[in-house]
Amino acid sequence: MSNNSAKSNLVIAQKMVKQLRLEASVRRIKVSQAATDLKNFCLQNAHKDPLLVGVPSSENPFRPPKSCTLF
């Protein structure tokens, strides 16, 4: 094994250890708690969700263009 490949393997291993330490330090919560929190957030913000309440036509940038008619 050449000296460069040994250094390369060492650098890769150090990066992997750093990443694993970072992942191990992440605070974790139970799935049931995360689901409850997400449900509560959705219920609290449902009145602001345009997919649920719709978008007023005056604020909708994708509304069909009005056509002009001349009489």
Automatic annotation (TrEMBL):
GO molecular function: G-protein beta-subunit binding
CDD domains: GGL
Record-level GO BP terms: G protein-coupled receptor signaling pathway
Annotated transmembrane regions: none
Its membrane topology: Lipid-anchor
Principal subcellular localisation of the protein: membrane
Annotated compartments: Cell membrane
Keyword Isomerase among UniProt keywords: no
GO cellular component, one term: heterotrimeric G-protein complex
Entry keyword annotation includes Membrane: yes
Pfam families: G-gamma
Keywords attached to this entry: Cell membrane, Lipoprotein, Membrane, Methylation, Prenylation, Transducer
Gene3D superfamilies linked to this entry: Transducin (heterotrimeric G protein), gamma chain (4.10.260.10)
Domain G protein gamma: 6-71
Top-level taxon of the source organism: Eukaryota
Function text: Guanine nucleotide-binding proteins (G proteins) are involved as a modulator or transducer in various transmembrane signaling systems. The beta and gamma chains are required for the GTPase activity, for replacement of GDP by GTP, and for G protein-effector interaction.
Record note on quaternary structure: G proteins are composed of 3 units; alpha, beta and gamma.
Family label: Belongs to the G protein gamma family.
Name under which the protein is recorded: Guanine nucleotide-binding protein subunit gamma
Gene: si:ch211-286b5.5
